[in-house]
Specification:
Length: 402
């Protein structure tokens, strides 16, 4: 065990945040899956054990990936991206359908499903980090610099949007942030935003006319969020939103205590999309604020890695992967407190899941790999400087006069 801890490098604060969020996940999932276990006539401990296994594998992924020199991901990024595109196409047409959208593919003979958008998201940001680092000399040129980094974003978002518009929008916004940090011209970033809006409207129009896609679902979510009237009377709140608000109101400042949630029995997907509302109900406003703090702490430590990294590729990896992870967390929590329409995004490392947790863990492993390299580089420089100072002092020492 001591040997394992010695080999665990990288930012210790990020490691601590990952462990804390994993522990919170176990408590929240165990509490929120009671009704799910009853519905499927399963032992209540089944989902807890399942989440322990999933998170355990996630921590293993983080450990082994963070031991790899991050520079090796530059070549793997191209391969991962090229693999993700046909997987997205296959998922779009032949994936497992749920709520009129295909988001998963099933591995034959295993019973395991993989959310290909999570893989594509990881692959895209690794690929963009590589492209931005290579194109820094010409990044302000539209044809030579911007178009090569714009194309993969548009392709990935276009393949994800029909079944998972919220993830496509999140990817687009995060890419805009990464492009701004990568010194892309603001007017070019505005062009990406405009292309995203036009593409979204076209997708909605085509889906509305042909009936292929989720136009009605998107329209309903926006109308439900804005609110409207039926027969001259205010429309009743959406069932999910209503019970999420009740859970938050029940939580108060300190919460009802672990395992004492009432709305877990009424709130759909209380163990995934709306797990933050259950956390607030059981741990109160204090628990909800701490969740925000942990994600922001993770982002801050990643930004410090970005600022310390001497090479562009590692810096873009750290900031790109951390931004998309934290942005997803903020969107999920905003949905739970009814600040934005329902999106279907989960809370990273906390919501019950499988492949999404593993791909998130892989992203964290890459960030820690960059951190480990930065720490080792700075450690070597410090050791060399101390050695040089010691030798200089030794040369300047004069022999005592007898």
């Amino acid at each position: 065990m001591k040997q394992l801890l010695k080999q665990t490098k990288g930012d210790q604060v990020i490691w601590a945040v990952v462990i804390i969020l994993s522990f919170i996940s176990l408590l929240a999932v165990y509490s929120a899956t009671g009704s799910l276990a009853y519905k499927h006539d399963t032992n209540a401990n089944y989902y807890l054990v399942k989440q322990v296994v999933i998170l355990g594998l996630g921590l293993i992924f983080i450990y082994f990936i963070h031991r790899v020199n991050y520079t090796k991901f530059a070549k793997l990024a191209v391969l991962f991206y090229l693999i993700s595109i046909p997987l997205l196409i296959y998922t779009l047409f032949f994936g497992v359908k749920l709520n009129e959208g295909s988001r998963w593919i099933s591995l034959p003979g295993t019973g395991i499903t993989i959310q290909t958008s999570a893989l594509a998201q990881l692959a895209l940001f690794m690929f963009l980090a590589r492209m931005l680092s290579v194109k820094q000399a010409v990044i302000k040129d539209f044809k030579k610099g911007f178009l090569p980094v714009l194309a993969p974003v548009l392709i990935t978002a276009a393949l994800i949007a029909p079944a998972n518009l919220s993830t496509a929008v999140m990817i687009g916004i995060t890419c805009c942030i990464l492009f701004f940090i990568g010194r892309v011209r603001v007017r070019h970033i505005a062009l990406l935003a405009f292309a995203g809006i036009v593409g979204g409207l076209l997708l909605y129009g085509v889906s509305k006319v042909t009936g292929f896609g989720r136009a009605e679902t998107w329209e309903k979510r926006i109308v439900d969020f804005i609110g409207s009237e039926e027969d001259g009377k205010p429309k009743e709140e959406v069932y999910q939103v209503l019970h999420a608000k009740i859970a938050i109101a029940n939580g108060g400042i300190t919460g009802r205590g672990p395992g004492n949630s009432q709305q877990r029995n009424f709130l759909p997907h209380s163990y995934s999309d709306f797990i933050y509302a259950i956390i607030i109900e059981e741990y109160g406003l204090i628990g909800g604020a701490l969740m925000v703090f942990f994600y922001l702490l993770f982002l801050w430590r990643s930004i410090l890695i970005f600022r310390r990294c001497p090479y562009a590729f590692g810096a873009f990896l750290a900031v790109g992967l951390s931004t998309t992870l934290v942005f997803q967390a903020m969107l999920n929590m905003a949905v739970n407190v009814h600040l934005v329409p329902v999106t279907g995004l989960t809370l990273p490392l906390v919501s019950m899941g499988g492949s999404s947790v593993w791909f998130t863990s892989m992203a964290i492993g890459v960030i820690l790999s960059v951190s480990r390299y930065v720490d080792e580089t700075e450690g070597k420089k410090k050791a060399e400087m101390e050695k040089a100072v010691t030798e200089s002092e030794r040369m300047n020492v004069k022999p005592a006069l007898g």
